[in-house]
Amino acid sequence: MSLVRPAGTALALGALLAGAALSPASADPGLAGDGVVASRQDSPVAPGVTYTSFERLDPRGWLRGDLLSTDLSKRGVTVDYVNTGKVSGGTPLSQQLARKGAIAGVNGDFFDINDTTAPLGVGIEQSGRLINAPAAGHNDTAVIGKDGLGRIAQLFLQGTAIDDDAVKLALTNLNSPSVDAGGIGLYTPEWGDVARGRTVDGVQAVREVVLRGGVVVSSAAAPGTTALAANEQALIGRDAGAAALEAFELGDKVDVEYGVRPDASAVAVGISGNVPLAKDGQVPADVPDADLAPRTAIGFDAAGKRMILLTVDGRATGSRGLSLKEMGQLMIGLGADDALNLDGGGSSTMLARTPGKAAPQVVNATSDGGERVIPNGLGLLPVKGSGKLKGYRIEALGTAAATPDADLSRSSRVLTGLSRVLTASGHDETYAPASGTPYWFAGGAVRVDQRGVVTGRRAGDVVVTAARGAASGRFPMTVLGAPVRLAPSTRQVSLADSAAKGFFAIDGYDADGFGTWVEPRDVKLAYDPALVKVVAKGNGFEVNALSDEAVSAVVTATVGSLSTQLSVTSGLASTVVDELDDVTKWAANAVPAGAATASRSAAEGHDGGQAIALDYSLTGSTATRAAYLAQTPQQTLPGQPQKLGAWVYGDGKGAWLRANAYAAGGGSAQTLNLAAAVDWVGWKYVEADIPPGLAMPLRFWRIYVVETVPTRQYSGRIVIDDLTLRSAPPVTMAPPAKVIDPMVVTDGSVRGWKFAVMSDAQFTADNPDSDIVQQARRTIREVLAQHPDFLIINGDFVDRAFGPDIALAKRILDEEVAGRLPVHYVPGNHETYGPGDLSEWTKVFGPHTSTFDHKGTRFVLRDSSLGSFRAGSFAQILDLKAQLDDAARTRAIRNVVVLAHHPVNDPSPTQNSQLADRKEATLLVNWLADFHAKTGKGAAYLAAHAGTFAATRTDGVLLPLTGNSGKGPAAAPDEGGFTGWALVGIAPKSDWLQLEFRPHVDSLELKAPTDLRRGEVAAASATVVQDGRRVPVAFPVSADWAGSLQLHVGSASTAPFWAVAAFDPATGKLTALRPGSAELRVTVNGVTKSASVKVGW
């Protein structure tokens, strides 16, 4: 990979983007299926055994899985059945693997989860010893034969008990959790301590015959309560089986024989599952395609020489799980000819060892949040190695405790001038631990000492090597540029009490947006040690409070000349800021007017006092409906609250419950989510997190219910009581430093050819001549005046998408543009509002996605109208990857710009206005960064939706964000909160994309001193006035500063000798140089203002 820098330094793709996305078609079709592989990491476990973790995205969502691929012919491991040593009971899989010294394994059979924990099917230990089995039912079994080959087979218990009178009884169960109806089960000492009576719970006719040394020593109508001794067996019959056992009398000799059929002599290891997922390379027709869940499966290739163990995570935001049919398809894609489903859900567990480690770790994300107690599993037992050092596995010490599947790509980065501490784990030829202190060395981009501390010297690729004799290990690294800013991993660590521990890391970023965590050894912390304790841990710091009282502290982290801050709080005090006992202080209203309705009235509160009821009807329209209970006047909230809550009597109708408050800095109201759905009936306390970073004090506005699904039409009533804040003692922190990205031109004009972008006008046909419609028309006219090659409307041109709204949008474009330039219209979320989809929009504006090339730049327009690309259509994700691959191959394409309405990241503290699928957002940036790094071509993602103008970059990908062109902005005026549009220039240079963020200018003010003395320095500034907002002419506002011949624009140190004064737009400083007069001018979006300055002695 290459980081595109002025110096043109080449850097390795593998080092910079470990686990980067792969091509959907060519990179890994077995894992991809009908989707795309987002990441894949492989690690050897033993000779012939490879562990793989992967993530993929397909039409049904995200999937994360773990794979153990074992070449059985290599004989690097022995496969064995593992359990606790007993059939009943159970322990976590990690303990079962440790019992046999296994280095990897998965959970096994389904089991009696609510009682005995005994497995339902067949269990055969290495060497063919049968431990448990049924004669019928649950007989599908994964088998390793004594020939070392694997297969899926049906195994059945075959057993008899014959007394000396030749009474012969057939056995139906061996150590099973229950005895079959009318059958006889044999229980051996391997059953364990669980009472045998639990195998016949609720059965009336029962008999247990206990054998000691093959002789009947007891016969009773109920099973015994003590565990069986080493030389004892118990025969338990029920119904007809109980009657048959009466033939065995005290003192009788009974010969018990049992095994499995068929081919018992050929079986070395066996474990049962419940559904064959693949047979002869096909998924059986009766395998269901429903019930997404975590899964575990085992399979073998057609030759039986390769064993595939697979777990997939489920019931989680980041992994949906699979249906049984999908699991079969995936197993076949991975090479299985035959496959069997093992126990899934919370039982799904996989462990694997990494090279140089003694014990395996859990590598999947168990849906129970930890290991479940299970009865058995399959383990991989290592062949004993020589113990002699053959190689090293190198990793960053700070993330060495991470699980083997963790994304450690950032750990292989180091910023210039900072360090990364590495550690090397020695291993022998079997990847088992082996001792030996290595010698460290590396290329010239870094310096490495003999403790494994790597220090970045200059940007570039480097391989760090640890070696001792012939043994060595290599660790590819990427040296980033020098850090230009810092950020904590969280702005606020909130602790419940002094016993709780929190964590934060400090991240550093270079000028191209490449980042990584900073080693704790490079960070200096300043805080009050009487309030909190902070210690280095892993790749960051662990923190806890030192008092049981409420605590607030500021931690300042410094790296070189850079610093950043975060707060630590412990214990939150509750304050009721409004008891809602005065209905006159609240007003009810609803939108859309004439459809939804709302009214408020007094009601009984949760504690018997008074509260306020909100009666609502979210009917009459398929557009988004909402009913509001607003405070009048709005209340300024005290302190620095972290949570806002209220008691709510729910009606169970499922409305989304939210609240609005204004931050002190201005902009639109911030949205706080109290409950995703009012799905309860009765009183319940609900609470929203108030994101750190909002300017305090907040001003509370309203609580409301909202419904976005067109087909959900209903009325209801909720009651609200005791609006409550939870707060820690206030702290004072410096605001994060504003990131000023040079892609935004703050003085001058963009270079190269130009196109324009506008977004978020948000008008409706209810008033075709509204102020917002006029703003939209004004924006188009301003665009046309700059003669761009084309205009892109990046979503939310309309506020609602019924037929008349879309017709008005078409009319405005026809009247204003009139064919004078091409217009490309990207749909936003409001292009679905009303119908609930893009049906009305596509009737007029055509396909929801498109791609076109223009003067060497490829434009890929995507649909995020439903909050994510996948919701818009999975086909557009596959097409995006195909377009990037084609652009990489096509020499005529120099850059790629992807446009969609929703941004990767919303810069506001609430982060409500961004791609809803955060993994999809990461995938998008990774794909673009991968494209940029491999080709050196430019990559950008241009979005809107957040109501602010902003510009950042991540891993070399430009991420500009356009604000509103009609509707009022969301952010404060000095943080990009203004209305306007963007003029984008593209030129064949390293800074290939530039933007002018052009605000609407109702009036322009220029403030500058009229008289200065030579050598005097004063401030000069400009302000745009629009719709009551006062917008400073500073980043991200674009302007063109100029002046008379006697005024130099730039640093005073570069002024020519004749200049009377110099103005530096970067600092806002006006410097008087020599006596005379000069004129300072500023132009913003075509409006110019000037001021005269006179310099005297």
TrEMBL record:
Q: Please report the stretch or stretches of sequence annotated as the Phosphodiester glycosidase domain.
A: 208-380
Record keywords, A-Z:
Signal
- Domain Calcineurin-like phosphoesterase: start-end pairs: 754-926
SUPFAM superfamilies xrefs:
Metallo-dependent phosphatases
Task: Return the InterPro entries for the record.
Answer: Calcineurin-like_PHP, Metallo-depent_PP-like, NAGPA
Q: Name one GO molecular function term.
A: hydrolase activity
Q: Where is the signal peptide?
A: 1-27
Q: What is this protein called?
A: Metallophosphoesterase
Organism equals Kribbella sandramycini
Q: What is the lineage of its organism?
A: Bacteria, Bacillati, Actinomycetota, Actinomycetes, Propionibacteriales
